[in-house]
Design brief:
- The chain has 642 residues and is α/β, with parallel strands linked by helices.
- It folds into four domains: 3-206 and 247-309, Thiamin diphosphate (ThDP)-binding fold, Pyr/PP domains (Rossmann fold, 3-Layer(aba) Sandwich), CATH 3.40.50; 208-246; 330-484, Rossmann fold, CATH 3.40.50; 508-635, Rossmann fold (3-Layer(aba) Sandwich).
- It is built from 25 helices and 19 strands.
- Strand 15 (516-520), helix 21 (524-537) and strand 16 form a beta-alpha-beta unit.
- Helix 9 packs antiparallel against helix 10 (231-245).
- The chain binds thiamine diphosphate, 1-deoxy-D-xylulose-5-phosphate and magnesium ion.
- 1-deoxy-D-xylulose-5-phosphate binds at residues 82, 84, 189, 307-308, 358, 429, 433, 436, 487.
């Protein structure tokens, strides 16, 4: 029995009766309010067991209920931006029984997935796609002469992304019927930043805007209804008055009808305005104000910390129990090292596209605010901004998750690499991130960066090597340098007290052996060492090499291995296509070095779902046992040759 049921003396809950959107169609507002509280309790209880995105979901309960009452999903299309706030939508669309499996291996995704439900209209995980997706649906509907409605729900954080404005620009031009619900909770993951945010704040809090709006509505109406020869002039006057005084004018100028701001927890208002928006011709932007973490004091007071919660967070404690971590996280080592380096080198500037917390830059921002830039969810801008800082003699460190760097690909090529600028790209969450699943795995960065001229790519085997590589990167002046490191904790090694330069393109042999060479990148070095130990019990002497660099390669090592005919296994937590293994194969092919036995191990050619990182690594065979088995299967080949 749930806590809420217990509170109600075991009475049946409304939520028990809700299995699809039609189940709430006839609910009164009072019933919806009760249901909202039941859903709140459901989320708190379930997420304390599974973890997941928390504050945003608590904030959209009323909005989601109203959307599903007003719209007729799946005929009408409800499209979520980022999708981390779609849990309530999942509850209402037949998936509440799947919550114990949320973000678990083979369980329910934390994001909308078309394969999961007919109510999920667009797969998502990255920000600022919803308006483009909604417009695509709207135009397709028009072309097919269908009658459905389309609504995008986008947060104020996601609204800082350039793609959202590209889509507004297009939607306002083509004027297809669609509604954009702007869910403004004044938060991205951290506090939202930028001029758009300031503008939304003005719309929310400036009393002039609201009172002018009321007075003006009548005047503009009258002007609009005047006929004949003065009409043209008065219309112009009306438009300039509107420009000065009408709230949401920015969106109006984009060709949208602006409505709001309204209280996004008031079900009466929500239903009224959603109905109105739904029945208005052309694109409408409905500005809804919500509170992230609504109804759960700890999350409402610290929305940044409770954006997502870990397994074991608890209603009474409010957060997960603090277990003493086995080791420092790579992110923490990055952030702490960057502070030390920036204090020694005043050219260093840190940039984050809206991920200050996740990238470990909170303390840096507090200590060096003038040399810290949160640019909003704007990876493309972040890339070009970094390039220009480097042009002007600064040492930009662009801290970015592997998956979000995908957004800035052209900027990396066109603005950073062609100009060979000494930008440090600090790629966090490289490799499998786990529970966020396929949209967030850091699988592709080596493949998509390695083909770009001028760039250097390295990955440390542990947290100590990370600090040395970051030092090396900030000292490096010959061009762009990417430093990739994984999510989570390091291996718990002792940290050196002083910085040492890592020679560019040079590997490190961590275990000698001549039967086979395991060339590993990043923390896979430790997996390789474990495999080598297993192999030693079978009489196989495996050499283990910490490659350190995916580009440039340690060519002298590769030539030596080829000359001595030592079979090679490469192992990396990155897409096998285009990764380190591919690079080494290309090297041998280009140098016309034949006869090298090489078996590459990495992430296979499919998108990798959600689950714990270890489950996922096991599922793709990136563990010591599989590595040892694969290596063993190569040794007889060597013996045959001899
Ligand atoms: C392209 C991209 N960059 C960064 C992120 C990481 N991210 C996920 S949610 C989020 C904040 C979104 O804020 P908002 O849209 O206001 O939603 P809220 O969490 O406030 O409900 C960020 C930065 C992302 N998902 N996609
Ligand atoms: C939805 C989203 O993109 C972020 O909230 C992401 O889940 C954060 O991931 P980390 O927990 O790895 O910082
Ligand atoms: Mg927000």
């Amino acid at each position: 029995m749930s806590t809420l049921q217990k509170k109600r003396g075991g009475n049946c809950m409304l939520l028990d009766k809700v299995n699809c959107p039609s189940d709430i169609k006839d609910f009164s507002v009072d019933q919806l309010r009760v249901l909202a509280e039941e859903i709140r309790q459901f989320l708190i209880e379930n997420l304390s067991i599974t973890g997941g995105h928390f504050g945003s979901n608590l904030g959209v309960i009323e909005l989601t209920l109203a959307l599903h009452q007003v719209y007729n999903s799946p005929v009408d299309k409800i499209i979520w931006d980022v999708g981390h706030q779609a849990y309530v939508h999942k509850i209402l669309t037949g998936r509440k029984h799947l919550f114990p499996t949320l973000r678990k291996y083979k369980g329910m995704s934390g994001f909308p997935k078309r394969a999961e439900s007919e109510h999920d209209m667009f797969d998502v995980g990255h920000s600022s796609t919803s308006i483009s997706a909604a417009l695509g649906y709207a135009i397709a509907r028009d072309l097919k002469r269908e009658q459905s409605k389309v609504v995008a729900v986008i947060g104020d954080g996601a609204m800082t992304g350039g793609m959202a404005f590209e889509a507004l620009n297009h939607a306002g031009h083509v004027k297809s019927d669609m509604v954009v619900v702007l869910n403004d909770n004044e938060m991205s993951i951290a506090t939202n930043v930028g001029a758009i945010t300031n503008y939304l704040t003005k719309l929310r809090v400036d009393p002039h805007y609201s009172s002018f709006k009321k007075d003006l509505a009548g005047i503009l109406q009258k002007i609009g209804s005047v006929g004949n020869k003065t009409e043209k002039y008065l219309k112009r006057l009306r438009d300039s008055l509107k420009t000065l005084l009408v709230p949401g004018m920015l969106f109006e100028e984009f060709g949208f009808t602006y409505m709001g701001p309204i209280d996004g927890h008031d079900l009466v208002m929500l239903k009224k305005y959603l109905e109105q928006a739904k029945n208005t011709r052309g694109p409408v932007l409905l500005h809804v104000v919500t509170q992230k973490g609504k109804g759960y004091a700890v999350a409402a007071d610290a929305p940044d910390k409770m954006h997502s919660v870990s397994v074991g967070f608890n209603e009474k404690r409010g957060s997960a129990p603090k277990l003493k971590p086995a080791a420092l996280t790579y992110t923490k080592v990055f952030g702490d090292t960057l502070i030390k380096l920036a204090k020694q080198n005043e050219d260093i500037v840190a940039i984050t596209p809206a991920m200050s917390i996740g990238s470990g830059l909170v303390s840096y921002a507090e200590q060096l605010p003038d040399r810290f830039f949160d640019v909003g969810i704007a990876e493309q801008h972040a890339g070009t901004f970094a390039a220009a800082l480097a042009c002007a003699g600064k040492k930009p460190v662009l801290a970015i998750y592997s998956t979000f760097l995908q957004r800035a690909y052209d900027q990396v090529i066109h603005d950073i690499c062609i100009q060979n600028l000494p930008v440090v790209i600090a790629i966090d969450r490289a490799g499998l991130v786990g529970e966020d699943g396929e949209t967030h795995q850091g699988a592709f960065d080596i493949s998509f960066l390695r083909c770009i001229p001028n760039i250097t790519i390295m990955m440390p085997k542990d947290e100590n090597e990370l600090q040395q590589m970051l030092y090396t990167a900030t000292e490096y002046k010959d061009g762009p340098i990417a430093l990739r490191y994984p999510r989570g904790t390091g291996v718990g090694v002792k940290m050196d007290g002083e910085y040492k330069l890592i020679p560019i393109g040079r590997s490190e042999t961590v275990r000698e052996g001549d039967d086979v060479a395991i060339l590993a990148l990043g923390p896979m070095v430790h997996v390789a060492e474990q495999a080598a130990e297993m192999l030693s019990h079978d009489g196989v002497n495996a050499r283990v090499v910490n490659m350190r660099f995916a580009k440039p390669l340690d060519e002298s090592l590769l030539v030596e291995l080829a000359e001595r005919r030592i079979p090679i296994v490469t192992v990396e937590e990155a897409a096998i296509a285009g990764g380190l293994g591919s690079a080494i194969l290309e090297f041998y092919a280009q140098k016309r070095i034949a006869g090298v036995e090489l078996y590459p191990m990495g992430l296979p050619d499919h998108f990798i779902e959600h689950g714990s990182p270890q489950q996922l690594l096991d599922s793709v065979g990136l563990n010591a046992q599989t590595l040892a088995d694969d290596v063993k299967s190569m040794v007889p080949l060597k013996q045959k040759r001899a």
